[in-house]
Amino acid sequence: MFFERPKSGELAVLVHLQFSHQQEPDDPREFEELALSAGADPLTLITGSRDKPEPRYFMGSGKLNELRDIVVANEVQLVIFNHSLSPSQERNIEKELKCRVLDRTGLILDIFAQRARTHEGKLQVELAQLEHMSTRLVRGWTHLERQKGGIGLRGPGETQLETDRRLLRARIKSIKARLDKVRKTREHGRRARTRNSVPTVSLVGYTNAGKSTLFNSLTDSDVYAQDQLFATLDPTMRRLELADIGSCVLADTVGFISHLPHRLVESFRATLEEASNSDLLLHIIDCADPERDRNIDEVNKVLEEIDAEAVPTLKIYNKIDLLESACGRIDRDENNKPVAVWLSAQTGEGQTLLKQALSECLAVELVDGSLCLAPNQASLRSRLYQQHAIVSEDFTDDGSSIVRLRIPKPDLMRILSHTNHQWSELKWAG
């Protein structure tokens, strides 16, 4: 019922109004890209300005008549607003135009429904769609009366609308219970990584900033990456090896967007919690986008909403290949700590610098020295080799070995615990 979509693009008229109370005007180009991403075939973009929305039709009567003329003349199937409409406004406009009307929230939900691939992703999208649809059910059932009585026709004494709302509430409750299980599973995974001292790095950023392209390049993966809004919806994790750090987990997440529907943030909380529980966030930024600064602010707003604003963040200015004079570099603060990396995920320029910056940001105390190992410490020596901690090794006349170590101290302490050795028992050379 909620997921039927046409096989081909629908002829659509886009409506974008500017209101005087808005401090920063919205970019209609992003709205057009959203419509194209949903599979619509935009006929034209109607723009206008008002002091405030009209309560009944959202727009003024003159603009409504202009819109009606275009819909009738071109047999338009769909009108999409770059705004959030109330259920009554949506119904009133549909009655006037005699075609389907969709607001910005419904448009984004439709794109998410197309992109979801995993079972978890589909559940999250369905939850957001059902909660959005619950306030709009009356539109489909205003023609039905209370269920009929009589032999074989007696119902529960409620209207079809009430029945549907009851069934919908039950489905929403069921989906939330299943997503709670997903959240608990993710928590178990995070606790396991914490016990094993494996840091997690999450990619966040505005939609179409190049997160998936960078993710694929760093991890040799084949995550779906296209030049379109919300190309990535389902979270993906891969292992990444870093110098002096060892293994870390890199997580690709869904892109953010201005006026991201609150229902989506709530529905995807199980996924977005991965970012809020990370050791480091990589904020991917399209440095060639003229709306770059606004996009950064929008991402920061969502990070605050999911309680991730306190997580250490490294800014990644991507797509330097689209700038004339930019080259790969690391920007540092007054303490010489990396705060930003300039690179191109498409060409690979600057990615070595990114790995260097990651190693510095995730760095823990590093054990770098020569350790004397007696012949009866073979198990410890074996574990150190398995961890790739031994840089070189020399042997003495009595059969002992002197190994040059380079390993994070937490990893060494874990190896010592597994082999029943104590830090105080170690003998260091030089």
Automatic annotation (TrEMBL):
Instruction: Outline what the protein does.
Output: GTPase that associates with the 50S ribosomal subunit and may have a role during protein synthesis or ribosome biogenesis.
The annotated subunit structure for this chain is: Monomer. Associates with the 50S ribosomal subunit.
- Ranges for the Hflx-type G domain? 199-366
Supply the InterPro entries for this chain: EFG_III/V, G_HFLX_dom, GTP-bd, GTP-bd_M, GTPase_HflX, GTPase_HflX_N, GTPase_HflX_N_sf, P-loop_NTPase
Q: Does the keyword Phosphoprotein apply?
A: no
Coiled-coil regions listed: none
Q: What is the lineage of its organism?
A: Bacteria, Pseudomonadati, Pseudomonadota, Gammaproteobacteria, Cellvibrionales
Q: Which Pfam families match?
A: GTP-bdg_M, GTP-bdg_N, MMR_HSR1
Q: Which organism is it from?
A: Sessilibacter corallicola
The principal localisation class reads cytoplasm
**What keywords were assigned to this record?**
Cytoplasm, GTP-binding, Magnesium, Metal-binding, Nucleotide-binding
| Family, as annotated | Belongs to the TRAFAC class OBG-HflX-like GTPase superfamily. HflX GTPase family.
User: Which PANTHER family does the entry mention?
Assistant: GTP-BINDING PROTEIN 6-RELATED, GTP-BINDING PROTEIN HFLX
Protein's gene: hflX
Q: What superkingdom heads the lineage?
A: Bacteria
Subcellular compartments? Cytoplasm
Task: Quote the protein name from its UniProt record.
Answer: GTPase HflX
